[in-house]
Amino acid sequence: MAKLPDVASLLPHRGAMVLLDEVVAFDASTIRCRTRSHRRGDHPLAFEGVLPAWAGVEYGAQAMAAHFSLSAGAGGAMTTGLLGGLRDVVCTVGRLDDVTSPLRIDATRLSNDRSGSIYAFRIAAEDDDRVLVEGRATVIQQVRAPDHS
After folding, report:
1. CA 60/CA 136 separation, integer angstroms
2. What does pTM read for this prediction?
3. What digits encode the pLDDT tens for the residues 24-54?
4. What is the dihedral of CA 37, 43, 47, 49, to 10 degrees?
5. Per-run averaged pLDDT (10 residues), the chain, 149 residues
6. Which residues contact 53 (CB under 8 A, 6 or more apart)?
7. Helix residue spans in 39-137 (DSSP H)
8. Is residue 132 within 8 Å of 62, Cβ to Cβ?
């Protein structure tokens, strides 16, 4: 299997806001990522040392962004996604920073057209497969031509 690119190269985020550690697998409609960043004491989304479960939405959004990048392939048009809406988001825990297991982030593209995509996302504790956060997101795509300067 070919080595997957570094996650940071797939996202518009930089520094501490790159929350995903690695892409484990992807295909035309799905991506699976893994991370331990939820345990960082300096997490950029934590408040007073607590990383609320709703921060899982950002983990899902970053998995979707990585999927966009991987799906575009080399030489394709650059795609920027804007989170347009969330539906059916369920948090089964109050916080993520006290989950000792690595997080597994799965995103599945349910539909796609020129204007955007709808994804289902799920954040689970990898060790016991316990679902922590899940929902659906609408992503509005902005396509721009590659910069050849």
Report:
1. 9
2. 0.88
3. 999 999 999 999 999 999 999 999 999 999 9
4. 70
5. 77 90 95 96 94 97 91 57 89 97 97 89 96 95 57
6. 91, 92, 93, 94, 95, 96, 132, 133
7. 56-72
8. no
Neighbours of 16 (CB within 10 A): 12
**Beta-carbon contacts of residue 47 (< 8 Å; ≥ 6 apart):** none
> HEC profile for 69-94?
HHHHCCCCCEEEEEEEEEEEEEECCC
Q: Which structural domains are found in the chain, ordered by start?
A: 7-144 (3.10.129.10)
Output the CA–CA distances (angstroms, integers) from residue 16 to 23, 41, 107, 117, in the order listed: 17, 11, 22, 27
Please give the Cα distance from 69 to 63 (Å, whole number). 10
